[in-house]
Amino acid sequence: MSTLKQLYEEFVERARAVGTEVHWARGKEEARQLVGQVIKELKATKVALAENPFLEALGLKEVVRECGAELTSGNPREQAAQADLGISSFTLAVAETGTIVQDATDISARLVSMLPPCHLALVPAGGLVATLREAIAFWARRGEIPGYLAFVSGPSRTADIERVLTIGVHGPARVVVIFVEEGDGEL
Amino acid sequence: MSKASLREAVRDALGRKSVACALTRFADNYVVAREQAYQVKDFESLRREVARIKGEAASRLEELAAQFTREATRRGAVVFRAQTAADACHYIARLAASKGIKSIVKSKSMASEEIHLNRYLEERGLEVVETDLGEWIIQLACQRPSHMVMPAIHMSRHEVAEVFSREVGERVEPEIPRMVGLARRELRKKFLSAWMGISGGNIAVAETGTVVMVTNEGNGRLTTTLPPVHVVIVGLEKLVPRFEDVAPILEVLPRSATAQPITSYVTMITGAVPCVDPQGNYLPRKELHIILLDNGRTRMAADPVFREALLCVRCAACLNVCPVYQQVGGLFGDVYTGAIGTVLSAFFTDFTKAALAQHLCLGCQRCREYCSAGIDLPGLIAELRRRAVEKNGAAHVERLIFEKVLPRRRLFHGLLKAAARLQGPWAKEGRIRHLPLFLAGLAEGRSLPPLAAVPFRDRLEGLPRPARPKDTVAFFSGCLVDFVYPGIGEAVCRVLAAMGWEVKHPEGQTCCGFPARQAGMPKSLAELARQNLAALLEAGAERIITACPTCAEALKCLYPEALAGDAAWLPRAEACAAKVTDFSTFVWEHKDELLPHLAPLGRKIAYHDSCHLKYALKADLAPRRLLAAAQAELVEMTPRELCCGFGGTFALKFPELSRALLERKLEAIRRAGADLVALDCPGCLLQIEGGGVEKTVKHTAEILAEKLRRLP
User: Is the complex ipTM higher than 0.90?
Assistant: First the structure.
């Protein structure tokens, strides 16, 4: 059995190789600080937040406001389309490929990771698994497969012109993952 | 299109150097990057697992389709079983019409290419926009994809800039990041206003009704999320029984396709999900229509040979490693391209086109080595060739050669001896530079060795024999060694004699029959197999040695296959197959008998991998080990695996293409900086030596024979 630390190290290596930024937060406070840091660094003025109990418990709305950014409003489609940054939570993280996995049936959760130029994903530390097979077995075990399961490994990319790798063609050009320790047992 | 116009099209394609440049550059990098991506995975066991899953699915196609339909329907999808391309097109057009939909966005789907959906919908006044960058470029340029995974790989940035300039009505600079940005802006508008999204699917799970999509750009996610109606077109062969079967396919697909451990996005859609339409209305369940496309797949599943093609996961590795595809791109195939594409096209789109395109396969067998499901692609191409000949008949020349001349050994060998006497006028300084009539192409841009004045079979008397032979081996020389390079045969005999083996060369042996199979005439192969088996087994030797890997492959692999239905001969074919070994492998196995008699080679040698030695016999290591043990300094060429472009009759059918492949090989040889090129195949020798390379090229047997300390 790999320890959490080993899984995290492998995840970081794999995720960075495909262009994902990865952080580790020891608790909610550190998670809030890291989110704030990302917002400031990006100079984001509009942030779309796909709320769920896990993110609510972290109190991210306040973090967005404290950073002087505005939470987008309107229907989920407009919200995500206006935002400089989309924030959502993911259930699993696969160490061997640097992939994060989300039940994206909820339309907001789906859109905030697709339309804005930058996407920030928060993942409970307990969601780290070693392999893709484990992640797939996880959903198979749960019975009914979610309507929309999303596996994300780094930013949107293309090499369709002369095989030159270019990021951000349709989805986000920047993907940030923050693992949250003591993640409130949402899993 | 006729054979002549195919040749014309090949010449055209070769003229567009940028295509071959882009494809070869990609292909060379691909092999290295792919190796890296598989580093922590066991490719062989993975592809066995994939083949097992897909094989089970192919044998239960109808049952899985019914289960998929039930499950997806239960989750709120509408499943439509389309028997033909037309059924699928009608369904989508009717669906759009019934909802008053005018604008459609599409993510990449080869199935939609297969049914020519865009044309059908556009003719009915619908706006259909491809959103995969490569597909969009192709659509704007009014072309068709040349590669299943990288549709616009044949176009340069300048060509793309021109296409974009036309589209946006202003000058676009050929800078890739800016052009990608332009695509993002233009296509984002289309996404946000579209009412229907059409996508393909890489896997369909019967157990759960799930459709899996593997993408990098994110356009697939937008196509399946923004418009309130989503149509999936997925071929029946994408079905797998269980949700957990997805994992092994996901482990091979991106690694084999683009050398990525995983793509940026893997999307799994199960039933209808919530949506917000372009007017901002929230829909708790959008419309999901899944078209399960048959269009020849059931017919393929019922075919005892071609059902194997249903194992394909569409990674396109067979295109990526195909030497011919690298030169001519999309010309090799129809809607689907490359080896698998040609086979699929025969069932899904156009048998006639596929039957013509298969001529472009040179038979190197490299594709099978890389196939994510271990499909015997060369075997399928051979069968396609056989059926094409069965349907359309063979050319007169081929019927004459394979039905009238080759099966009559005395006539065939008599003709060769006569030709050796008559070739005088064309042979200058020991080489032939121009050939008469239909053979002219073969001598184009290269020279050929003349037929030997005295064939190997008439030189046996003067060869050394061990005083007290430990045992006997039979030598199968094959036509090239017998009539063109008898020196290789002599070298084989000298080396084996030094090792203490008595060598018999059964007189009744004739052409191995490989060219007959290549011409799609396996009956002629079977006839030659019987003659050779009779001659070889009569010799009663424990082992049968060849100095030509193509002959070895025929004896070892093809004879049992060709005689499978012949109860009298099959046991003999199997007995023979078990005895056959290529020269270098045999000598390596008995190296202790040779090394004491050998002076150190002491030369810098670059070893050329002959395709049939490497991919059919898997014997590429033995000659390297042997040469190294004989104290040669071995250097590898870059890229290490590179076909010389000979391919037997391929060089006759497509001389310019053969020459283009040879050029790459010659460059690799020059770069390697060795004194000498070693190889184990007289066909490759003929090709490389004739290309005008400054290096000496020799068969391993000749290199060893020259260094024997004492001629016994």
Answer: yes
